[in-house]
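User: Show me sequence and structure for the first protein, then do the same for the second.

Assistant: Starting with the first protein.
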Amino acid sequence: MWRRAAGRIGQHRLAAFAAAGAATASALAVNAHCNAEPVSATLVAKKGAYEELLGLLQPVVPAKMNTAFVFAKPHANTPAVLEVIKAKFAAMGITVLKEGVVTGEEIDKKGFIDQHYYAIAEKSTLTSGKDLPVNADKFKGTFGEDWATVVAEGRAFNALEFKNKFADKFGAEGALDRAWDATSDKKKTRVKLGGGFYCGQIEVDGVKYYTFNAFFMTMRGKFTTPGTSIHYYVVEFDPATLSWADFRGQVLGPTDPKDAPAGSLRGVIAAGWQALGLKAPCNGGDNAVHASASPFEGLAERTNWLACAIGDDSFGKALLEAGVPETTIKKWSSDPQVVYDAATAAATGKAKGSIFDALEDLDYDECLAKCVAISKAS
């Protein structure tokens, strides 16, 4: 894009600039060729006019804006809360590019929430229990059984499989939660197999069965219950005036609303939950509003919830142009463990870790550079 100089300075001034520029260029060339004395003040003035013209004709480079995905969670999706959110955006100079509603039925059918919480949901609903990467030694050390035997006997289920198989006992609301809560590492009926990866032993009719991440089913149900919905916003803001860290810390607020600044969204909604139409107080899980933790996470959430193509997204396009393969971007959208670049490894003390963690709270340019570095390291 080029600025139209004539529209700003008028035809006569443009002609004068051009004449001055031509005279200046000619005089400077003669002066240099003849090794003459320094040019006069008049010539310097003409040179300044020429340079001003060149400045006006420079291409306009669009600001690299931070773009995030934000939504009011089902428990807080009330008209009053939405007004609070939009008022906060306006006050902080945050522009809403797009907004809409996704129903609980859609979330359930299309698995939006499963992808959103992929690291947890993968073990709870997406991958069959028998196919999960269970550490056999840890499993036997806790439960006293061989994992291979459990699989062969058909006693391993993800949480959704378990709930469906024993619907008569665990189909009712809260039934599976109570059974899961009754397991514990102290009783050797639960073991942590990895980050966000838990296995619990639940006995049914005298037979010991094993299920994974059953706590996710309650979380999932809050998003998928018929009649519920989220209200989402795609927003952008200038990192020069609002950093991503402040967007999350001051605009959104920490995960637990009791720790949130009074003026943050989570702080305001938690304090006024009754007047805003919520049915219960906020807490660390029901914390009213979600927002992306980085430009990359925002991209991952837009491609999930809005079915946006990577190349059609501003940050996605930038990643592709910077040489990060589309296959890598898709893989990273599920927050896998990745090999860190040297700088990230030194800063975190880890050679490998979560891609989302490595990019958290970074603004556009730094996030893009970090993505490129980690992509090359991997």
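Switching to the second protein now.
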Amino acid sequence: MTDTATSPAAGFGVRAQLTLSALTMTLLFGLLGLAWWVWRYRSGYRPSPRKHRILAALGIAGLLFIAVGTAGRLAAAFQPASACTPPGGTQAPARTARVDASLVAQQAATWPETGIGLLYSHAMDAKVCLSTAADYYVAIHTNHVAGASAVTLGDIVLSPGFNIGKAHLRRLIGHEAKHRAQWAVGTAVGGPFLFPVAYGIDNFFFPGDRNIFERQAGLHEGGYKHVGYGPVLGPPQLAVLGVLAVLIAVAIVGVRHRHRRALARDTE
């Protein structure tokens, strides 16, 4: 009889499963996810059935998000948007090279996020156009998710409008293009959810001009006025820090309790 555990078909199935799991971790969590997968595989870590089901459910949800975003972006690729015509006048392209490797990499890395932004914009019946100055999409709607502010979602900028002068518009275009680069780097390092989470946490404690991502993109270009550097520690921030401290303390106590129970079983 042939041992199915060591048959070529079984070996191929194991390799396919490992490849699929590594690809899933990379798509969801970038290079950090791949590094975690390698560590888990080499250490022989195996989650409990309950944790395995939870991780599988989260993985499926994340892959569904990526699939929907990819489909939305792919649909836009076959339906080219018209060029934007802002009140300040059409801006000259900032890039002269026919093929910009950095731009192509940024657009590829933020492909799913851009698709989600496009689908959201179409659902809101926003006017979507293509900025020829920085080669990204712009969705204009007075009641979008960020209200009166412009927000970049991958390779698309959601904005209530650009009723500003031509010089200010040129600076703002460059500012939002830098946010696209931040999205791309965040996606490559930690997946499509890393940058919005990192930005949200930073903006909660360091709002507005204090935000490190806004500083990197240029405060003046983004229309910010410099106020300070330090964190804002109001009641909401202090409440979050208090809850976080409690959770850390509970986690430490839980780890110590499990460690003591394991030692007690070993000594029996």
